[in-house]
Amino acid sequence: MNTFISAMRRQAGTGLVLLSMSMLALAQQPPAATGPAAALRAQLQALAPQLERNAFRRPLALQSSEAADRLSGDVYALVDHPFARVSGALREPAAWCQVLMLHLNTKHCAVKGGGTTLAVAIGRKFDQPLSDAQTIAFAYTPGKADANYLNVRLSADTGPLSTRDYSIVFEAAPADGGKTAIHLRYAYAYGTAARLAMKGYLATLGSDKVGFTPAGEGGYIGGVRGVVERNTMRYYLAIDSYLDAPGAGQLEQRLAAWFDATEQYARQLHEIEKSDYLTMKRHEFQRMQQQQAAS
Q1: Of 5, 35, 241, 252, which residue is most buried, by most CB within 10 angstroms?
Q2: 165 lies in a domain?
Q3: Cα-to-chain-centroid distance, residue 199
Q4: Which of 115, 108, 119 has its CA nearest to residue 93?
Q5: How do 134-146 and 106-112 pair as beta strands?
Q6: What is the number of domains present in the chain?
Q7: Quick one: pLDDT band at residue 172, thresholds 50, 70, 90?
Q8: Beta bridge partners of 174
């Protein structure tokens, strides 16, 4: 009997030792990845089926939403550049002027306030004097930036007509295979004047314009959600084109790449001919450089 009790005590002791060792090993395991970089990668993982098979012919997912007085568009994508290149290219305000200027409607961009503000002139889809454009003062806010994450925000309280609360948010994190996971959000709110102007545009010049979200019998969503989807896509393609050719002497490459990329989605994004776009943008960039040199 004493032998049996002793054996049981030895077995219990061994069990306690093993349990203690297991608990110690569990405590020493690295914690589950958390933070914005992990959240971004998790979001792209959740969107993996859409990234792999879509009408964009690239690893990209586009979402949009419409509230009573606010529109937003989101692009999640993988880009074929390592994170260090993406972060190095897009963490300075001057780089964002180069990106925004690729858009048809951006006529001018200047870094102000020691890098805290981007003065962005918005106009028509043709060459025009700056006096005919309207300037939006975007506050430039660099968020967290380290070896695994980059966050940049552009925000403006007011814009043309009764538009307000503009927000452009960009975030990036390393992904497998030397790629980078990115997320771009473009959003703004609008009041009565902007609503009426948009209603008039959509009833006339923009009556045949569509976005990217499928909407019944092979069609696509239209209206104001179509508008925000088109512009979100244009800004994403501008970022992608800039990352391919960020050098000071690579403007022509960037311009051609952006236009050619938009023509892949001509149903949604075609507005003018390539020669007209290149001529207009060359003049606008030259004007921007001249003003920078004079200031």
Answers
A1: 241
A2: yes
A3: 26
A4: 115
A5: unpaired
A6: 1
A7: very high
A8: 180
